[in-house]
Amino acid sequence: MGSSESTLSSSQQVDQITTVTEKPEDGVDPLLEQLRSLKITTPILTSIPTENSLTDILVRKPSPSSAPGTLNPKVLLELFSMYHDWQERKTKTISQRQEDIENKIEVANALAVKLLQRFNYSVSAMRTTAHHLSGVHPLQVEVGELKGRLTEVISNCDALCKRIAEDGPESLQSSIKPFTALSNSLFSKPFASSSDILEPNQQYSSSLQQITNTSSSTD
Question: Domain segments of the chain: what residues?
């Protein structure tokens, strides 16, 4: 057991620290050169102790007697000016959007007013039309009654004309024609003038007058 432990411990490698003794050809470490080339910018918070070198910053220790940091007035003025510019841009954008929205609202209101006017006009026109249509049925009834009476009058006149043509005096038979023939000749014309309509009626009236005079003379 002891011999095996001694051989195991002798076979293990011992940890060693190796050091690099070679230096760069230029003799200056580039990382160290970059660190030395760093510059300190103007801080927003300024304090009374100042650090002029990188060593002062790295080994700086907080001192209990140090005064609290104060804002740099120039940096604060720049911040306020940037905020003011941003606020003005936002204000302009919001006002422009508000104007656009107001214009759209005005256009929508104008369209709504026009649509309401047209709707009211349509409603009034529909009411007038409905009122007129409500009087159509009584007119149809009256026209039907007048048509029936006119048909009856025409049939009576036609019968009277036929009777005169058959049994009336010879002086009237040549001038009397059946009323249906007069009506057919009148309505067969495409365009009937007022004289065409009045002339048969005048002839018929004169014939009736002659008949009346003849009957009165015989009595």
Answer: 71-134, 138-212
- In DSSP notation, the chain reads -HHHHHHHHHHSPPP---------SSSS-HHHHHHHH--PPPPSEE-SS---SHHHHHT----TTPPPPEE-HHHHHHHHHHHHHHHHHHHHHHHHHHHHHHHHHHHHHHHHHHHHHHHHHHHHHHHHHHHHHHTHHHHHHHHHHHHHHHHHHHHHHHHHHHHHHHHS-HHHHTT---HHHHHHHHHTSSS--HHHHHHHHHHHHHHHHHHHHHHHHH-
Which pLDDT tens digit goes with each residue over 96-126? 999 999 999 999 999 999 999 999 999 999 9
Q: Which residue has the higher pLDDT, 144 or 207?
A: 144
Q: Is 176 buried (19+), middle (13-18) or exposed (0-12) by CB count in 10 A?
A: buried
Q: Name the range with the highest mean pLDDT among 2-6, 77-81, 90-94, 131-135.
A: 90-94
Q: What is the pTM of this model?
A: 0.35
Contact between 217 and 203 under an 8 Å Cβ cutoff? The reply is: no
Q: Which residue has the tokens 């003799």?
A: 27
CA 59 vs CA 11, 21, 36, 46, 53: distances in Å: 46, 28, 15, 18, 10
